[in-house]
Automatic annotation (TrEMBL):
Domain MPN: 10-131
Keyword Oxidoreductase in annotation: no
UniProt keywords, alphabetically: Hydrolase, Metal-binding, Metalloprotease, Protease, Proteasome, Zinc
Domain of life from the UniProt record: Archaea
Keyword Metal-binding: yes
Sample GO molecular function, one term: metallopeptidase activity
A single BP term in Gene Ontology: proteolysis
InterPro entries to which the protein is assigned, alphabetical: JAB_dom_prok, MPN
Gene Ontology cellular component list: proteasome complex
Protein known as: Proteasome rpn11 subunit jamm motif protein
Length: 161
């Protein structure tokens, strides 16, 4: 599977954005935090080079409050296909804070969603915190059952690394 081609991140799947908005609303008044995972556009039937954001990966042990969310980076699985991050601002502000900018180093796109978590309550940013366009794409998401095909021994092995 070719994940990172010259086309970069083309957009976010409509269902993925909807999931993130709903999860942020359910987490409110605390911040929501996750990593964005991508799938090659050609694997989704698109005749374009690049990656489409198709998943939000929530890391176990993530803590959140109304002011921040903290991820235990040592629990991020290898090969997670991360292309960036997503988090909510319960106060509704759709621009990165200074703290946000320090976390934007990993990945090429970072999404902030804000209260009241409606379809127009989100913005995308590049690693420098500058606004960037991110199309919402109507694609059929792949069944990624293999991602959930693990047991306790797999979890124990991952934690030992």
């Amino acid at each position: 599977m070719r994940l990172f081609r010259s086309g970069g991140v083309l957009g976010i799947a409509d269902d993925t954005l909807e999931f993130a908005l709903e999860a942020s609303d359910e987490t409110h008044p605390n911040e929501y935090m996750g990593f964005l995972r991508g799938t090659d556009a050609r694997d989704l039937g698109l005749d374009r080079d690049g990656t489409v954001i198709t998943d939000v990966l929530v890391i176990p042990g993530t803590t959140s409050s109304p002011e921040s969310a903290t991820v235990r980076e040592n629990l991020i699985p290898n090969g997670s296909r991360a292309v960036g991050s997503i988090h909510s601002h319960p106060n509704g502000v759709l621009r990165p804070s200074n703290q946000d900018l320090t976390t934007f180093h990993a990945g090429s796109v970072h999404v902030i969603v804000g209260a009241p978590y409606e379809r127009d309550c989100w913005r995308a940013f590049d690693p420098d915190g500058e606004p960037t366009e991110l199309d919402v794409l109507d694609v059929d998401l792949p069944d990624d059952d293999a991602f959930f095909d693990f047991d306790q021994s797999d979890i124990d092995a991952e934690l030992r690394e």
